[in-house]
Specification:
alpha/beta; Rossmann fold; 13 helices; 5 strands; 42% helix; globular
Length: 289
């Protein structure tokens, strides 16, 4: 990747990552990936490398690093990517910052899409309700009778190995490990309400020249991978960006959804509001551990 810059997109599900990718893709300098799974390949290579008897006998860390760099370089080169700036989208990168910085010998730049956790859960719940008939999919992904109630489903999605809880904990851990300066949080609501300002902040964070994006015509060039989630039917983006002004969760989750609101404080201190930096109002609630 010597002739290219590599940045990462890694945040919460249902928080506008696909929308952000397709907005960025309007810039002819940028290539944005759908989740390619290449990080999983690199992780497997790294893990298996140390299990090979010959490498145990004659350790070769520099060789391992060259191989790992070569995997990513070959993946994008073979894919015909000509743009000088690549955005690799994978929610696992937040747990691999050290590896990324060792491989590429530079500080990582990670765009972290976030959204009110209650709206994330409401989005999953809406998808579940519209796909109840696909029970052979949902029930195999869930854990028993809890899947039969709204509260049970939310509790499952918040567990550490499930889509919301896993991504949330990765964000929390990256901050705890001292990498908050590598993260640029992109709030879904703010992206839809103030896209010009939010994109300007992204470009400044990345050290890229500004680009005039067209928020009234956003072609979809990347998609999400439905099978990553225990709910089918992840929708496509809308071609015109419209402001998201009202939260969805009160109508979907009802009063019980308010119990998850405290989780949003994890990233609020890092997000620029129209007037000033939002205060840090607490820590994660015990639901996400």
């Amino acid at each position: 990747m010597k002739d290219k810059k590599l940045h990462f997109i890694s945040g919460l599900p249902r928080a506008g990552a696909t929308l952000l990718c397709n907005i960025l893709a309007q810039n002819p300098r940028f290539h944005t990936s759908s989740p390619p799974g290449i990080l999983d390949v690199m992780f497997l290579v790294r893990r298996q490398w140390n299990q090979v008897v010959e490498f145990k006998a004659t350790p070769n860390e520099k060789g391992k690093l060259r191989v790992l760099r070569g995997v990513l370089d070959s993946f994008y080169s073979a894919g015909g990517v000509t743009q000088p700036v690549i955005f690799d989208k994978s929610r696992a990168w937040l747990g691999m910052i050290e590896m990324a910085e060792t491989l590429f010998e530079t500080e990582a730049r990670i765009l972290v899409p976030v959204r009110d956790v209650r709206d994330v859960l409401a989005s999953f719940e809406k998808l579940w309700r519209s796909n109840q008939h696909m029970r052979q999919v949902t029930e195999s992904a869930a854990k028993g009778p809890a899947w039969e109630t709204q509260g049970g489903r939310c509790a499952l999605w918040l567990q550490g190995e499930q889509p919301v809880g896993l991504c949330y904990n990765r964000i929390k851990d990256a901050i705890t490990r001292g990498y908050s300066d590598r993260l640029h949080f992109v709030d879904f609501d703010q992206l839809t309400q103030r896209p010009e300002e939010i994109m300007e902040g992204i470009y400044e964070f990345l050290g890229e020249d500004a680009f005039p994006h067209d928020f009234n015509n956003i072609p979809q060039v990347t998609t999400d991978f439905d099978e990553m989630y225990p709910v089918p039917g992840m929708p496509a983006i809308r071609p015109k960006l419209e402001p998201h002004l009202q939260p969805d969760w009160p109508m979907i989750l009802g009063p019980t959804g308010d119990q998850y609101g405290g989780n949003n404080s994890l990233w609020q201190r890092f997000i620029q509001t129209p007037d000033e930096m939002a205060p840090h109002i607490g820590i994660a609630t015990p639901a996400l551990v």
